[in-house]
Amino acid sequence: MDVNQYLGIFLDETREHLENLNAQILNLEQSPEDSDTINEIFRAAHSLKGMAGTMGYKRMQTLTHDMENVFSEIRNGSIKANSNLIDILFQCLDALEEYTNNIQETSDEGTNDNKPLIDQLNAFLNDNKGQKEEASEKEKPEEKKEEASEDAGRHWMDIPIGDPEKHVFAVAREQGKQVYGLDVRVQETCILKAARAFLIYKAVEEKAEIIVCNPSAQDIEDEKFDLEFSLIVVSDNPLEQIIQAAQNVSEIESVTGDVFEVQDVPVKEQGQEDVPAKREETKPAAVSQSNAPAKQNEKKAAKPVVNRTVRVDIEKLDVLMNLVSELIIAKNSLVSASSSEGMTGAGFNEQIEYLESVTTNLHESVMKVRMVPIESVVSKFPRMIRELSKKLDKKMELYMSGEETELDRTVVDEIGDPLMHLLRNSADHGLESAEVRAKRGKPEVGSIFLDAYQDGNNVVIEVRDDGNGIDTEAVKAKAIERGVITPEQGESMTEKDIIGLLFHAGFSTAKQISDVSGRGVGLDVVKSKIESLSGEVEVKSKLGEGSTWIIRLPLTLAIIQALMVIVGGEKYAISLGSIQTIEDISPSEIKLVGNSEVISLRGSVIPLIRLSKELDIASLKSPEDNLIVVIVKKGEKLAGLVVDELMGQQEIVIKSLGRYISKCKIISGATILGDGEVALILDANALI
Amino acid sequence: MEQLKLTDTVETAETAQYIVTKLGAEQYGIDIRYIDNIVRMQHITRVPKVANYLKGVINLRGEVIPVMSIRLKMGLPEDEITKTTRIIILKLEQHGTIGVMVDEVREVVTLSSDSVEKVSYNSKEGVSDFIFGIGKHEGELISLLDLNMVAMEK
Fold first, then answer.
1. Which residue out of A29, A68, A165, A414 is catalytically annotated?
2. Residue ranges making up the domain that contains B44
3. In this structure, what CATH number is given to the domain that contains residue B44?
4. Interface pTM, i.e. ipTM
């Protein structure tokens, strides 16, 4: 029975439940009496346990089971949630997350039993409810054991043993392992015999390697057996352990076993060709710790690669489906229009327009499918702030808004770390200690805000605090001390420049990493991460009043609006997002400042970049002609790109140039134009 | 499955198929296993600031694929684009998909390993770096290109 096909769903749902639990347990701390919250927690924990059990993740199941016990006592009102318990519960969630990560990577939950956590949970239960017996005792093996002693006929003796198996036994013996026969009897009331058999399989496989079973694994899987089945296993664990493991599965009436005596085993030189094949059949696709000869292990189940998935609202898919059908209609109309009227008729143009609107809508809805709310990332922050608050001994509160704002899945996956860093920064450096706050007449509890909202084609995420703000003088002093700038440079720097220094890679040093965050450590990493997502970071700060970090991200990465330009006869695309204006400049307006060309535009001095020079191509325009200058913006900086000609605005699909040509910095990618030609996309950020 | 693969490699150890191409007067052989496609010469979009042998990128059914000139890579005179010029699309494990320009594609030949002579590496010309052997086919000599060397960045 292969559960791997459900692995993806299992992981997705587990994550969802864990997130939910995180949020609800936080709630619980706020309002320990709220029965809705408690019920919700209970439900989530229960589903988790059920899922883990079904998938055969024993340790995970045990842990959730014990957590569930605690929740159930809370629900009954016999335990009250206090801060201590909440801490333990959070640790449990972390442990569960670790299991989940292990499962994702290796399909195995790992070997950490998290015994201390379970003990703590149970201790809590016992403290509060003395008479409650150790709750972690799961399935009572007592009743099973009654029959266990009775020698149930040794059915495994009847299993026909072929030569390949004999060879395996012989090899195992040579390695000092034992061969055991096991009889398993399932309770008559058991409904899902195959499932139980499978769990037995899993349990036994942790201790031993299953060589043969009767009936065959396939038959067992198809429930083609009565109540009994037999196994022959090879293991270096004692028999009792194996039996014990198997008996832990519920609804099993008995498990008996003995050492399997193999008579006259001729050792063949080579295992026959069908050994590995048979082996695979008898082994469900779980990674077992078998120590059998390597050659036979080659067929071990490959690690499942769990694909990243996006859960999609069925409505979004319906819209997509509709659009695709419209697209087909449009195509058919085009076909008929071209055959009946030739390529000139008015109907033809109409169809083209129709097709255009369909494709635009199609694009939009495909993008929507890829969009996920940032909630999945930010939902872990309240808990983080709670922990920081304890660790730093500062009172603080996190206010979040706009969790439902949607971003491309790839962006959402990447945005978590930078945000976490900014929040930590705010908590650690932004907010003052309670005494200072009191002195300044601020409320004792510091506030951190995380706001997300959509702004045109961008999504803006703001991290704001009402703390001290950035002390530019201190930053300057530190920068000079670190040798990032010279004292002379420091003199002439504006406040903005100084704040910009925080993002300078040289500004942060690893030495300063405190438990929470160093002063400015890793802000450069935050910046480069955001920039790699084609976004930008901005800081606004007022000393004594707090600071705001503003992250601006594009809604989507794959398709952009671009301005097509021609330079020296070649076509290039510039992302519309970075373009401010387009100017017509006469050559006489160009001034030279320190050997570089600048223009003065509405009061600001803007450096000119001649694209023909950057792209190593001769401009086709004569020097006397007016220049077409595309003004682009990177953060606060402006620059004017000189192009030969403008072609117009176009929606372009970004294609990678591939790793073979990736050394060119000013080219961020390529796109394919309507005529099939490739045009390169200029990265305005790299040019400035 | 495993057995299949095994016989496969055994076979190719003895004979291999090559596409014979022309660069100038010489014939070069490209192992057919690495060839994805052969397309006619088309407009190549120049990419600035890259090595001179990288001619640029082309659009191959929606994929953007870099194209290089074997001639320039090997230090031969620049390609002359004619009617027979072709771009051979190679799929290499190490370098991904790349296109190489050749003057002409002639035929497919099957060479057994005993008709291939390994080249000695003492020749002064740069060309020999890119050749792993010389094949003899019907009285003609075919230089067999070492594609990983050709594609390797200098």
1. A68
2. 2-151
3. 2.40.50.180
4. 0.81
